[in-house]
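Supplementary material to the annual report.
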Amino acid sequence: MEKFDAIVVGAGPAGCAAAYTMAKAGLTVLVLERGKYTGAKNMWGGAFFGPVMGEIFPEFRKEAPVERFINRHIISFMTKEDCLSIDFKSYHGDEGSSPGFIMLRAKFDRWMSTKVEQAGAILATGLEVTDFIFDGSRVAGVKVGTEEFPGNVVILTDGANSLLAKKAGLRDDYKAPDLKQGVKEIIKLPREVIEDRFGVSGSEGVVMEFVGACTKGLPGGGFIYTNQESLSVGVVVQLSALLENNVKASDLIEDFKEHPSVRPLIRNGETVEYSAHLIPVSGVAMMPRLYSGGILVAGDAAAMVLGTGLILEGANLAMAAGIAAGNTVIGAKALNDFSALALSQYESLLKESFVMKDLQTFRRAPHFLENPRIYNDYPEWTCAMMRGIFNSTGKARRNILEVVKESMKGKIGLMQLVGDTLKARKAI
Amino acid sequence: MEIIVCIKPVLDPDLPPAKFTVDGKKNEVIPPEGVPFVMSPYDALAVEAALRIKEAQGGKITVLTQGTKYAEEIMRKALAMGADEGVILSDPAFEDSDGFGTAHVLAQTVKKIGKFDLILCGRQAADWDAGVVGSLIAEYLNIPVVIRAKSIEVLDGVLKIERISTNGSEVFELGLPALVTLSSEMGQVRIPSGWGIISAAKKQVPKWGATDIGTDPSQTGAAAAVNRLVKLYVPVYERKCEMVTGKDPAEAAARLTEKILAIKP
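Predicted assembly:
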């Protein structure tokens, strides 16, 4: 039976980056994907910030199925009736040079996996890895049902809640606070309508993030991204908060779509796709062991997601980790040593890269973002303040400081505000 | 036993209608991006039938498909299921051929291969449902054809075929070479094994063009099409709901009966 240099489990950003790196270097690579085709099972919000992408696929800006390049970010605090937004537009250089872009997974994954096949890796879809082949304690390949596939190294990139990482003894069970649930709808609208409603033209795109009532005050947020001819609309909520409050993410997205500041943006649109996904959000605190004899783990499967409240970034880290995993295996192959010691190079590479540096810098962010005041009191307060400023009652106006004080009354104590600001400074 | 199987990529019939749109001006289906076409399910039955015959008595299976965007993908699928070889027929001259043109291309390919005992096709493609290509290939090659087969057996060089008819089924016996089209009553199609997919990925699949198989340019392409697509559209079904009530079930039933009788066919 043929033995592969590397077997990659899961053809998402991490897996494809790893497979591409290794296949380019001439290694024999098998990629096993459980979806009927690549992209069939995968999901992300849609906004992607990725210099890493340019590193591995220099031609991606021309070739990849980019929906729109992001040149406008809108961050909003919302209550049930109000919405206070910060709208940031940026017109540096031509639109194609924007560091952020919006893509749809079905198209993107197909493009990326074609690249992987062209590089010489074998991609087999519709196959779900169920177990490992062990040689003593060392992983020596994978099993798909009764079929066995021997390999020198297995790279696990099978996404959030990787049961295989557990089976390989790399991690324990996750706890509900470690995970967020994302639900998303793709809402079809004509291109001109999107351009008019969101003030963009050509390949410009908008990313909107919402905090507050969109999650009924639970830790998380809402988002709207502009695709070419559709919108990605969704909410991301902490799983434990959903369970404790007996709330369904699917209900939250319905309410979000009905919010007075969201409804006009999606009016007359047709929902053509609905998807849900788990996101590991506790960063380094929940990270599994990243390597063992004959096995490496990367991407969502290794909880490589950076959430700072303002950004939620996963695919970028996943691809960087995939490249590091690929390079580690290339090095191991040269020495024909696939032991845990040889593969520990992977962790060293990650520590040198932005992946571990960012996760380390923002290691306090996951705990900070559990603070319920961010999702309840602060949106209520800031919106009340704006109402106070713009309200006209026929009586004499008060100065702004008084309005601010008035709006804080009964909602937020000054000490709390100072405390949370200090915590924010440390965490994010 | 030399078996040739013809397969075609189609938009996945399992896709919900919301996933694709129809361009009424160009008379074209606009498929969803990123979702690959699949082997027409009837054609997959033909591959399965070929594999069963090969398993029973040995032989070689060659798969043919016309070179559209997803030809390579469905060819790999057929090879992964267990077919031995494949040829993709690819030439700008073949594009936009109708069933007659396609049958001409396939018949010419069979002639070029030369040696064959049995040709298998799906009863019809799951996109246009015309169901003419199989019969036309047989016509062009001047061999007997049985369509809508439920089962095929080969005994001492004689084909025994049970075919679906309007009122049940009919059993035919015929000599080789012959062409048979397969119907869904044949049963389940196998799922390729992992190693099947791997060995298929490594196989070379040659592409043959018009000059390789000697097609007649006047018989292929849009200009040669006998059929012309006049209008392509998604039918709109209107449903109206009317609640029929009454003081008791008997009265409600009586009113309902009246309403039904009032409907003019």
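Chain B touches chain A at residues 18-19, 32-36, 191-195, 197-198, 201-202 (CB under 8 Å).
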